[in-house]
Specification:
Residues 320-413 form the Tetrapyrrole biosynthesis glutamyl-tRNA reductase dimerisation domain. Catalyzes the NADPH-dependent reduction of glutamyl-tRNA(Glu) to glutamate 1-semialdehyde (GSA). By secondary structure, the protein is of the alpha/beta class. It has 3 domains: 2-163, Beta Polymerase, domain 2 (2-Layer Sandwich); 169-302, Rossmann fold; 334-410, no CATH class. It has helices spanning 24-29, 34-46, 70-79, 85-91, 98-108, 120-134, 140-159, 169-180, 196-209, 221-231, 241-246, 299-302, 308-365, 371-394, 400-410, and strands spanning 2-5, 8-18, 52-56, 60-67, 93-96, 189-192, 214-217, 234-235, 250-253, 273-277, 294-298.
Length: 421
């Protein structure tokens, strides 16, 4: 898992923080919106970082990438968020090489999620990899690793029951409402924010509450209208936010803003109001707790909810881990192959040079020299020889390093440039 680029050697790291040690406020300090991610990518390129991907969700912010020292990645994160190095050191984790590989598998497969089995993270991983590739920051190693995690996630989702029942923040919020609000079908529900969590919450509300009094508001009304069209719910203008809040029994905030979008000054009604904040950073100002009629629930509270399906999902973890190990072995085999690929390539070039010289010699000696036939036969022989060496190097019973040195010595091969191993 190291990478030699002329005079510097870099290693694969996973650095970040999650709900496990960082509360919602601290996670908010390290949250990255799209603008922040773009700034981070640009700084990474300026600093000579070869490859990385960034994930920033309500539960975690992480960077997976190559660096000489993890501080290079930590600095990128702190320079482009409100978080400080001191805060990071208190709550963060740093994984290197094989541990970093194991971590990205667990995260991408929902085993490290705040709600076990939450598969929303895998779409975040896909989007992050796509963005990094667009910026020229996704090398072959990281792209192959992400694809392996996606493959593992798909298999776990189809081959185990780890995603049965409540698995996402959006579902957990609806489950909380169902468990704590009576006569739910007749309550007025306002959903403020129609990003991914907002859309999923809206879908779960309709599916599980049978409520026909759901209103959507989004800063960009057209986005709210798209969601409303899909679920046949009401849309109101952003200008009507205060009016709609005061007419509601339940307010769900999923705006994804960097600063609070709702505070106590928007709430004039004296009737009980349940407020669920599904955002990181928090989008509901804590001053709403000054109002006696308000019950404020944050997503960190929702993660504590357990139901009968949780134990069932926990029982599926060993099966999920078995699938991960199988795909990790495939990935590690690919890494091993990359160790000797440059030498095999150099060997093929050397044998090709022999071929060209020999064909040129025979061409001068033979009047009826068959160019096409000679080319075909010699190419087939070269392929068989290189395949034979490749199979030898894959043998677990031999020392790859010693064999590579012997091949290079015998065929007088130039030292190939090292790649990820």
């Amino acid at each position: 898992m190291e990478y030699n680029n002329k005079s510097k050697t870099t290693y694969f790291y996973a650095i970040g923080l999650s709900y496990k040690k960082a509360d919602a406020e601290i996670r908010g300090h390290f949250s990255l919106d799209e603008q922040g991610k773009q700034a981070l990518y640009q700084q990474a390129k300026i600093n000579g970082v070869e490859s990385l991907i960034v994930i920033s969700t309500c539960n975690r912010t992480e960077i997976y990438g190559f660096a000489e020292h993890p501080y290079q990645l930590i600095k990128l994160l702190c320079d482009n968020t409100k978080g400080t190095v001191e805060e990071f050191q208190n709550v963060a984790y740093i994984y290197k090489n094989t541990e970093a590989i194991s971590h990205i598998f667990r995260v991408g497969c929902g085993l490290d999620s705040q709600i076990l089995g939450d598969f929303e993270i895998i779409s975040q991983l896909k989007v992050s990899a796509k963005s990094a590739k667009k910026e020229g920051l996704l090398n072959a190693y990281l792209e192959r690793l992400v694809n392996a995690v996606i493959q593992a996630s798909k298999r776990i989702k189809t081959e185990t029951d780890i995603s049965s029942g409540a698995t996402s923040v959006s579902f957990a919020s609806v489950q909380y409402i169902l468990n704590n609000v009576s006569d739910i079908s007749n309550k007025n529900i306002l959903l403020f924010g129609t990003g991914k969590i907002g859309r999923n919450t809206c879908e779960n509300l309709i599916k599980h509450t049978k409520n026909e009094h759901i209103t959507l508001i989004n800063r960009t009304k057209t986005k709210a209208e798209e969601v409303a069209g899909k679920f046949n719910v009401l849309v109101k203008d952003y200008a009507n936010l205060q009016e709609e809040i005061n007419a509601s029994d339940i307010l769900i905030v999923a705006t994804g803003a960097q600063n609070p979008t709702v505070d106590k000054h928007l709430i004039q009604s004296k009737k009980p109001l349940l407020v669920l904040d599904l955002s990181i950073p928090k989008n509901v100002d804590s001053n709403v707790k000054d109002l006696s009629n308000i019950t404020l629930i944050h997503l960190d509270d929702l993660s504590q909810i357990t139901d009968e399906t949780l134990e069932k999902r926990k029982g599926q973890v060993p099966y999920a881990e078995t699938i991960i190990e199988e795909i990790k072995i495939e990935f590690n085999n690919w890494l091993e192959t990359r160790k000797f690929a440059p030498t095999i390539k150099a060997l093929k070039h050397k044998l090709n040079d022999f071929k060209i010289a020999e064909l040129d010699s025979q061409r001068k000696k033979l009047v009826d020299f068959n160019e096409a036939q000679a080319e075909l036969i010699s190419n087939n022989i070269i392929q068989k020889i290189t395949n034979h060496f490749a199979h030898h190097l894959k043998d677990d019973g031999i020392s790859t390093i010693e064999s590579l040195e012997l091949i290079k010595k015998v065929f007088q091969l130039e030292e190939p440039s090292k790649n990820h191993v």
